[in-house]
Design a protein that fits this description.
It contains three helices and four strands. With about 100 residues, the chain is mainly alpha-helical. The protein has one domain (about 1-85): CRISPR-associated endonuclease Cas1, C-terminal domain (Four Helix Bundle (Hemerythrin (Met), subunit A), Up-down Bundle).
Length: about 100
């Protein structure tokens, strides 16, 4: 799923921190291991933004169709499974036009 990291995950994080939708104050440190955890209220807000990102449209490279990120992930998973099952010789990862 590395192929989705920049366009899906990192773009969401940049969107959330650049206009200060989320700030460092929103994280708590529950123990001495310095692990960060969102407050429960902000977790719901993050999940709302994540769901919105999953619903945004992209053009799927192999089909040429406009699909949302959720459907794109599903199509790539199916591509991966067909490769594992030996139905295709090589996995075709998503690539993104800049």
């Amino acid at each position: 799923m590395e192929e989705f990291r920049a366009n899906l995950v990192e773009s969401l994080v940049a969107y959330l921190i650049n206009p200060n939708i989320f700030t460092p104050k929103e994280f708590t440190s529950p123990d001495k291991k310095l692990e960060s955890i969102f407050s429960r209220i902000r977790s719901k807000s993050f999940l709302k933004h994540w769901e919105e990102k999953l619903q945004s449209d992209v053009t799927h490279l192999h089909t040429g169709y406009q699909v949302n990120f959720r459907r794109c992930l599903e199509l790539q998973l199916r591509e991966y499974v067909t490769c594992l099952m030996g139905d295709v010789d090589m996995y075709r990862p998503m690539s993104w036009k800049l």
